[in-house]
């Protein structure tokens, strides 16, 4: 769990992990040089399964997550940002699939503004996922993803705007045992800075992922990029309608 000036939201995020029905977890909170009372809130939890790691300099979310990835030594690695929430049976539900041979498991998730109980949409994805499907757009919400690091190894995130997407692409390249649980197992807090200019930046990042990171040919990149753009526009229109 990367955290930067997360005092307003991190308490609920931590609680959603502590009260998981599955008890055998360890939560690494990487404080990315916060200047508010994030640390005080974290330390208010008397929880031995929680490990707080303070970064002296702010390095961004990818570097903060990488500190946690490096530290984690369990069979599985999962992710949760400091403003998002897991459903209380999130890990238990996913472990059923992991223990039945799947290497990567994600799920559908809800989206909210300020009140987690008031969802304005639910993001749903196909149950069966593969590399080609992922190239059309990220089907693994980072707050829902969990993978077997003993079988796939550690993949560290790159600071590029879509750092989690590249990580999941690289992981899915290593296995065909991937599934999306067809249940809402997490809740994503939508930020208030999702301006159209950010949509343009996201589209540029997506193009660079195809061409620079994955080294995909120009015509295939164009096909996947256009699919991504159309999907993003469609979701934006649905969001405005539901609001």
Describe the structure.
With 243 residues, this protein is α/β, with parallel strands linked by helices. It is 40% helix and 19% strand. It is built from nine helices and nine strands. Strands 4, 5, 6, 7, 8 and 9 form a six-stranded mixed β-sheet that branches. The protein is globular, with a radius of gyration of 18 Å.
List the helices and strands and how they pair.
Blueprint: E1 2-3, H1 10-18, E2 27-31, H2 38-43, E3 50-54, H3 61-71, E4 76-78, E5 85-86, H4 90-98, E6 104-112, E7 119-123, H5 131-135, E8 146-148, H6 149-152, H7 163-172, E9 178-189, H8 196-213, H9 218-242
Parallel strand pairs: 1-2, 2-3, 6-9
Antiparallel strand pairs: 4-8, 5-9, 6-7, 6-8
Helix pairs in contact: 8-9
Organism: Oceanisphaera arctica
Pfam families: Glycos_transf_2
Protein name: Glycosyltransferase
What is the structure about, briefly put?
Keywords: Membrane, Transferase, Transmembrane, Transmembrane helix. The protein has 243 residues and is α/β, with parallel strands linked by helices.
Q: Unreliable runs, pLDDT <50, ≥5 residues?
A: 192-197
Order of helices and strands: EHEHEHEEHEEHEHHEHH
Mean pLDDT: 92
Number of strands: 9
Features:
alpha/beta; 9 strands; 243 residues; single chain; 2 domains; six-stranded mixed sheet
């Amino acid at each position: 769990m990367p955290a930067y000036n997360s005092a307003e939201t991190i308490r609920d995020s931590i609680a959603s992990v502590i009260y998981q029905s599955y008890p055998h977890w360890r939560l690494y909170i990487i404080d990315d040089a916060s200047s508010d009372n994030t640390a005080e809130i974290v330390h208010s939890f008397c929880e031995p399964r929680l490990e707080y790691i303070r970064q002296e300099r702010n390095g961004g979310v990818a570097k903060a997550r990488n500190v946690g990835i490096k530290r984690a030594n369990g069979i599985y690695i999962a992710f949760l940002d400091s403003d998002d929430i897991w459903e209380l049976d999130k890990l238990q539900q996913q472990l059923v699939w992991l223990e039945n041979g799947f290497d990567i498991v994600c799920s559908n998730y809800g989206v909210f503004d300020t009140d987690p109980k008031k969802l304005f949409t639910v993001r749903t994805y196909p149950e069966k996922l593969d590399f080609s499907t992922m190239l059309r757009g990220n089907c693994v919400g980072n707050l829902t993803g969990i993978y077997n690091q003993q079988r796939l190894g550690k993949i560290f995130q790159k600071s590029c705007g879509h750092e989690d997407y590249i990580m999941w692409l690289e992981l899915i390249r290593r296995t065909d045992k991937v599934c999306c649980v067809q249940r809402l197992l997490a809740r994503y807090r939508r930020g208030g800075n999702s301006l159209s200019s950010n949509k343009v930046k996201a589209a540029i990042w997506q193009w660079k992922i195809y061409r620079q990171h994955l080294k995909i040919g120009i015509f295939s990149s164009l096909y996947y990029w256009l699919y991504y753009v159309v999907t993003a526009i469609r979701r934006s229109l649905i969001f405005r309608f539901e609001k």
